[in-house]
Amino acid sequence: MNILIGDIGGTKTHLASYSPNSSLKSPEVEAVYPSAQFASLAEIIHDFERESEHHFYKACFGVAGPIVNNVAHITNLPWQIDAVQLKTEFEFVKVHLLNDLEALAYAIPILQSDDLLTLFEGESVKHGNLAVIAPGTGLGEGFLSWNGSEYRAHPSEGSHVSFAPIDPLQIELLAYLFEHGYEHVSYERVCSGSIGIPLLYKFFKETGRYSEPSWLARELAKADDPSPVIFNAAMNTNQPADIAQAVLSTFTAILASEAGNLALKVMATGGVYIGGGIPPRILSELRKPEFLVHLKNKGRFVTLLSKVPVKVILNSKAGLLGAAAYGMTH
After folding, report:
1. Mean pLDDT on 1-28
2. Is 151 helix (H, G, I), strand (E, B) or coil?
3. In the chain, what are the domains?
4. What is the mean pLDDT of residues 84-109?
5. Are 155 and 132 in contact, with CB atoms under 8 Å apart?
6. What percent of the chain has pLDDT over 90?
7. Which of 5, 70, 216, 236 is the 20 to 30 Å CA partner of 27?
């Protein structure tokens, strides 16, 4: 009997089948499903069982949302995932639910050098806490602490705390959002793919700071998801679009600042790890000196943060890998 492992996100659901002897990076069968096209995780599991012809005795899922009493509400999907219901429906012996950043965090101790890009080498403190921040469909946060024998991952919903501007432009952005009816503006609201990038674009367009090229307007009108179009326009050196470049620059500044905030909150002397689907696509922007400047610019604590390593997770399956690492050992 095999173990079912899943990385459940607002955009895609990645399922994999592991035997007790499988290596973490080599599941026996895996498949990716567009989450929004299914009514529930259970529906996807039924499909996966049919297609893989595998049956499972236990399961472990990293899910993009808070978990309370073994029930998860997916932040960017109308799904509720109940571990007890899944256990009954599929006759699992056990079901583990992890927050998606908790699962991603469990992958960090087993990632190899080719899974990571180092933005800043720093001076890692042995067994120091590790911070994880991941912009994708939403914005996830988590961290790891050393318990004396191994790293233990901890979930967080820190991306939903109040957004704190760091310069006059971001102050204007916050005022714009207040004026447009947003009573609470979180970091996820301005630093995510599904809502953050389109909202930043709208801000720059409607405030008249930048004009919208007609070719870009046509591309956006055809797109189901505007974020990839905006990213591509921002990094297109042959046909630059100032408005898209401004969106990307502001997005990365906000991401860097919140990564520094998280590092201070959890005293991440072991390092800051940046995951999610967006960072590998904007590496040229993250490599710019301004990114580390924004991350470290914390007044009296700039010296502390100037020693913290900063790395980008390149492995697109890291969330699944972390869920597998936990599910196969617990």
Report:
1. 92
2. strand
3. 2-98 (3.30.420.40), 112-314 (3.40.367.20)
4. 96
5. no
6. 91
7. 70
